[in-house]
Design a protein that fits this description.
Helices cover about 30% and strands about 25% of the residues. By secondary structure, it is α/β, with parallel strands linked by helices. It has a single domain, classed as NAD(P)-binding Rossmann-like Domain (Rossmann fold, 3-Layer(aba) Sandwich). Strands 3-2-1-4-5-6-10-8-11 form a 9-stranded mixed sheet, sandwiched between helices. A two-stranded parallel ribbon has the order 7-9. It is globular. InterPro entries: NAD(P)-bd_dom, NAD(P)-bd_dom_sf. It comes from Cellulophaga algicola (strain DSM 14237 / IC166 / ACAM 630). This is NAD-dependent epimerase/dehydratase.
């Protein structure tokens, strides 16, 4: 089994990612959280936990880790410190320990933040983090969903390098997409956008092998 570090494990989407990894026969999740008070919920499920604050030194966080999912976010409060610089720190730590793949949860609009009418600072931070990952030399998948909802996942998406429409997608389906993007035979050195759609997630990802 591969050890998967999940940054942002305590977030709404992060918790879904960790649960999916725990159910998998291929992956062993390591939940990275910022506070000691957040650790017990994972330990109670027999999930490994790592204490790591993206605003501090996290250079040791990727030891004995095979792959990384970055699903952390500041909720708009510290977009430079967490969404941008925190991501960069984790990329650096991943390079230092020869991580096999880095899956980044980004956002639609991060390719052209200057065109955004709202959330411009957030999208600029995500853009800068994405570019840093692309230039790192690491194998990566950058996943850019539309607006996230708490609706129950349908297991179907529309996926393209650039989608012409805007729209929504459930956190369930985003989590599923991120976990599937860890696989060795899909989404290597790829950036793509996703929305709720008509194609099964696995089939959609097969198109970005």
């Amino acid at each position: 089994m591969e050890n998967i570090l999940v940054a942002g494990a305590n977030g709404t989407t992060g918790k879904k990612i960790v649960d999916l990894l725990k159910q998998s026969q291929y992956f062993n999740p390591i939940a990275m959280v910022r506070k000691e008070s957040q650790m017990e919920q994972f330990k109670a499920k027999n999930i490994e936990v790592l204490l790591g604050d993206l605003e501090q030194d996290i250079s040791n966080s990727t030891q004995n880790i095979d792959k990384v999912i970055f699903a952390a976010g500041s909720g708009g409060k510290k977009v430079v410190e967490v969404d941008q610089e925190g991501a960069k720190k984790l990329v650096d730590a991943s390079k230092a320990n020869n991580i096999k793949k880095f899956v980044m949860l980004s956002s639609m609009g991060a390719d052209q933040p200057e065109k955004a009418e709202k959330l411009k600072d957030y999208l600029q931070a995500k853009h800068n983090a994405d570019v840093y990952l692309k230039n790192s030399g690491l194998n990566f998948a950058i996943v850019r969903p539309g607006s996230l909802t708490d609706n129950k996942g349908i297991g179907k998406i529309v996926l393209s390098e650039h989608l012409s429409q805007e729209g929504n997608i459930s956190r369930d389906d985003v989590a599923q997409t991120l976990v599937r993007a860890l696989n060795d035979d899909v989404a290597n050195y790829k950036t793509f956008e996703i929305l709720e759609g008509e194609t099964l997630i696995g089939q959609a990802l097969d198109t970005v092998g």
